[in-house]
Write a structure and sequence with these properties.
The complex is a heterotrimer. By secondary structure, chain A is an alpha/beta fold. Chain A is built from 10 helices and 11 strands. In chain B, strands 1-2 form a two-stranded antiparallel ribbon. In chain B, a hairpin with a 4-residue loop joins strand 1 and strand 2. Classes of the chains: A alpha/beta, B mainly alpha, C mainly alpha.
Chain lengths: ~325, ~325, ~300
């Protein structure tokens, strides 16, 4: 069985014009660098990283908004740039206030993917919108209303209903909870979970919040400076992180009532993606860095004794 | 920054070159024919002579070639001969330019002074009665046709009150400064009133924004008197950017000057161009129009550069 | 942010209803609306009035120049003995018609160019913007005059057509539109640029929407507000342009009246019959100031801050 979406050495490079008096030479920003992974049917893959890690850009490529500069994507083993792929992969955004066209009523907003894909008659679409609106927990009369009449959490529900309209196989959720109040976050999170269980959806769940990831993910992929540094099933990753960066991320999550396991302090700041460090991208901040880390790029390989857990480190645990 | 300057200057020259071709072609489309005008009223002219004349003046050549000849001559300083003035074009341009400069500078300065006074007064209490009255005045200023304003002023000051002369430049005996001022008064007043409206709005907006800033609150807390705050601090900060915008309005100012000169029979660039077009004086019309274009473009460039210098965000592009 | 209308739950509180309510509160704008309606009635009454009085607005009568208002001529006669009131009304038709049509033509061109530049981006945007900036930088009136002085016969039109009233009308519409589309283009481009990056546009793209769909379904509806405001203000500007050009003799040419060309020789009769110098300009002034106030009211009504 081929995976739902496969990424093969996918890169996203941007050319940036230099600054300065006469304009410097053009530089290349490697937002995403040679990432390979696969998303299966019905699984939730969490994509974790700090800002500047490239996770949003990766999400855009999976959603079909951006073509990769290098590498390729596959949908169910076949080509990616097809109408079927666009229908099957939908997107939910971070900012609920920007995600909905203020000029359209909710019924049109939800039905829009159907209109774009040419699915169903107008009556059928309206019926579907009515169904979806209730499934995401909003009252029926929302259909005639406009986005500005709803709160952030409610708008996010509408956005989710829109993503569900064409009966997708995968939803790319780019930090869908970050802009919401904490009390609303758990509501939306539960909504996402229940939807997945009902429909056997896959999620590419992009987040920087490890607590949420722990709640929802089946597997976790960790990005640093555009590179995939660790890819593991959820339980393993949280129990025994293999890559030093993952370890540092987990240690940074405050846990009430429990002493920290170990102190892994990261030195320095994340380098600019315009000038990534040679060799292993993480070596400038890594407490374990050695000469080899600067010279050789580590490949993703299984951690000792745990073949499901992949890390890109010369000294993975 | 240097790159920015060079780029903008190059753009200006390019536009000027393109415009020179466009205007050259348009002049050719004006009613009448240079040869016909030359031989007007001369019964002994035969078609053979006309053809010969055409050859001599190069009028049988295609347009791009004729343009090229003109361009080469112009770059060498030869702008041709003005038929209606019986002088080389350059000798006509000089005094006309001086007259227009006199009118425009005086008018512009008056506008600026009035605008700063009115705009500041309006900004002191936004929404108040004075602000509303000044607002009405500015709306009137931008809605009034300049030539009609001139007529009304003539009606009031010249015809009814006999305070000022209705037109012309100086008395027959060239009666010194006072006489020149009397003749300049109505045209300057017309030009100034027409532009004060827009300028006042700029000043008002800039002053309102400046007065809201924290450093004004500090000045108040220090116990400085209100007039001192408004003039010494707020006004000074609002001055430069506002004056820059006002300088940008050069193009509109020139158009207003054109009308004013024509109405008041003042021999400036505007009237010169207008008469030249009506009188089929092709050389003069062409040179005059191009000069007007050059001056407008140059002032826009100067304003852009000043803007770029003022706002560090722009200059780093 | 809570739902605003708890009373009428089933009533769609559409964006337009909100706007109308806000507009009504702006008193000067409402007054301007009334004034403009009155002006429209005024110019529309030209035909009926001429029929009623049995007068020909173009008929000159050199024996009755500068007559004072009378029963036959309610506002007197002009410098050629023509009825002043009728000429004001017909002139108004011309000036308003040029204003509206030139705005529509120029606005459409500006809209198309702004959308193309804003949405396509890249080289197309750069090229279009360079051109726009070039035109904006030119001195308008001299350029309009040169364009207005063009002899249509040299462009291949027949002499009869070139001198007809229709040619004169379309000439000035084309000239003004040619020169005035830049403001609209810039505005639309800025709006399109900001819309392009919004998430709902990205969502539509992710579902497979092409550029045409996005432009018509999302960008255009969201730029209607600045377009309407800009369009209204453009009408005022265009009316002023036409009046200046006609006044200088390069726009609408007599005998067809326009408010501008009625002041053609105003300097001659400003002493003999000041009324003739006042009326046409006053009408231009009232129309333009009303249009400007209307635009201002629309701008306040469309305030996007309350419609996030």
């Amino acid at each position: 069985m081929s995976a739902l979406v496969e990424l093969d050495q996918v890169s996203a490079h941007f050319t940036v014009r230099g600054s300065g008096w006469f304009g410097g030479a053009k530089q290349v920003l490697r937002a995403v660098d040679a990432v390979s992974l696969a998303i299966g049917e019905g699984e939730t893959l969490a994509l974790v990283g700090e800002s500047g890690s490239g996770k949003s850009t990766l999400g855009q490529m999976v959603a079909g908004l951006r073509a990769p500069t290098l590498g390729s994507l596959r949908f169910r083993g076949g080509p990616f740039a097809t109408k079927a792929a666009r229908r099957a992969i939908q997107l939910v955004f971070q900012d609920p206030f920007s995600a909905l066209d203020p000029r359209m009523p909710v019924s049109s907003l939800i039905a829009e993917p159907l209109v774009i894909q040419g699915i169903g008659t107008q009556a059928e679409r309206r019926t579907r919108a009515a169904l979806l609106v209730e499934q995401v927990g909003l009252p029926r009369d929302s259909l005639n209303r406009y986005p500005h009449e709803f709160s952030g959490g409610q708008r996010q529900r509408i956005a989710i209903a829109r993503a569900l309209a064409p009966e997708p196989a995968l939803i790319v959720a780019d930090e869908p909870l970050s802009a919401l109040d904490v009390s609303i976050q758990s509501q939306i999170l539960n909504l996402l979970k229940s939807i997945q269980e009902e429909r056997r959806l896959s999620y590419l769940f992009i987040s920087h919040d490890l607590g949420v990831v722990n709640h929802l993910a089946d597997r976790v992929a960790v990005l640093y400076l555009g590179k995939l540094v660790e890819l593991a099933p959820r339980a393993e990753l949280f129990a025994r992180p293999s890559h030093p960066y993952t370890q540092a991320l987990l240690d940074a999550v405050p846990r009430i009532g429990r002493a920290r396991r170990r102190q892994v302090a990261l030195s320095g700041e994340m380098p600019s993606p315009l000038a990534p460090p040679p060799g292993c991208v993480f070596h400038t901040r890594c407490p374990k860095a050695q000469a080899i880390c600067r010279a050789e790029i580590p490949l993703l390989a299984p951690a000792p004794g745990r073949p499901d857990q992949l890390a890109a480190c010369h000294f993975k645990e | 920054m240097l790159r920015f300057i060079l780029r903008r200057t190059a753009q200006t020259f390019l536009v000027l070159l393109v415009m020179s071709f466009v205007i050259y072609s348009l002049i050719g489309l004006m009613p009448g024919d240079p040869i016909d005008v030359m031989i007007a009223g001369n019964p002994g002219v035969t078609p053979a002579m006309v053809a010969h004349l055409r050859e001599i003046y190069g009028l049988d050549q295609p347009l791009p070639l004729r343009y090229w000849h003109w361009l080469m001559a112009a770059l060498g300083g030869d702008l041709g001969f003005s038929r209606t003035h019986s002088q080389p074009v350059l000798e006509v341009l000089g005094p006309a330019l001086a007259q227009t400069a006199k009118l425009m500078l005086t008018g512009w300065s008056l506008s600026v002074v009035l605008a700063f006074i009115l705009g500041t007064l309006a900004a002191l209490k936004p929404g108040g009665k004075l602000d509303a009255a000044i607002g009405l005045f500015t709306f009137a200023g931008i809605s009034v046709p300049v030539f009609w304003l001139a007529l009304i002023l003539v009606l009031v000051f010249a015809v009814t009150l006999h305070w000022l002369p209705a037109s012309g430049m100086a008395g027959i005996d060239d009666g010194g400064i006072v006489d020149q001022l009397r003749h300049l008064a109505l045209p300057v007043l017309t030009l100034a009133l027409a532009n004060t409206g827009t300028f006042t709005r700029y000043v008002r907006a800039a002053m309102i924004e400046t007065m809201r800033m924290d450093f004004i609150r500090t000045a108040r807390a220090k116990g400085l008197s209100e007039p001192r705050i408004v003039i010494g601090h707020a006004l000074r900060n609002a001055l430069i950017p506002v004056v820059t915008i006002m300088a940008l309005s050069f193009g509109t100012l020139f158009s207003g000057a054109l009308v004013t000169e024509t109405m008041f029979a003042q021999f400036g660039m505007g009237k010169m161009i207008y008469d030249a077009i009506l009188g089929n004086d092709y050389n003069l019309a062409l040179s005059g129009l191009l000069f007007a274009t050059l001056v407008t473009l140059a002032s826009n460039l100067a304003a852009d550069l000043a803007y770029g210098w003022l706002d560090p965000r722009i200059s780093l592009r | 942010m809570t739902a605003i209308d708890t009373g009428a739950i089933d009533q769609a509180s559409s964006v337009w209803q909100l706007r109308w309510r806000r507009f009504r509160r702006h008193r000067t704008a409402m007054a301007s609306l009334v004034l403009l309606a009155a002006l429209l009635l005024f110019v529309a009454a030209a035909g009926p009035l001429a029929a009623l009085q049995g007068l020909d607005p173009d008929a000159t009568d050199l024996l009755s120049r500068y007559d004072s208002p009378s029963a036959a001529h309610w506002l007197g006669t002009d410098e050629a003995g023509r009825d002043e009131l009728l000429r004001l009304m017909y002139g108004g038709q011309m000036s308003l018609l040029v204003g509206i049509i030139a705005t529509l033509v120029g606005g459409t061109v500006g809209l198309a160019i702004g959308l193309a530049a804003g949405y396509a981006g890249g080289r197309i945007d750069a090229l279009l913007m360079r051109t726009t900036d070039g035109i904006i930088a030119l001195p308008l009136l001299p350029l309009l005059i040169v364009l207005g002085a063009v002899d249509l016969t040299k462009l291949g039109f027949s002499s009869q057509f070139a001198h007809s009233g229709a040619a004169g009308f379309w000439r000035i519409v084309v000239i003004i539109a040619l020169v005035d589309w830049t403001a609209m283009a810039r505005l639309v481009r800025a709006a399109a640029l900001s819309m392009k990056e919004r998430d709902f546009v990205q969502a539509a793209r992710a579902s497979g929407a092409g550029p045409l769909y996005i432009v018509f379904a999302h960008i255009l509806p969201n730029v209607t507000t600045p377009i309407i405001v800009a369009g209204t203000l453009t009408i005022g500007r265009v009316i002023l342009f036409e009046s200046v050009l006609s006044f200088l003799g390069f726009g609408i040419v007599p005998p067809t009246p326009s408010w501008g060309n009625m002041l053609n020789n105003a300097q001659e009769f400003v002493t003999t019959d000041p009324g003739l110098a006042i009326y046409p300009g006053l009408l231009i002034f009232l129309t333009v100031i009303a249009v400007n106030f209307l635009g201002d009211g629309l701008q306040h009504a469309f305030d996007p801050r309350s419609e996030r």
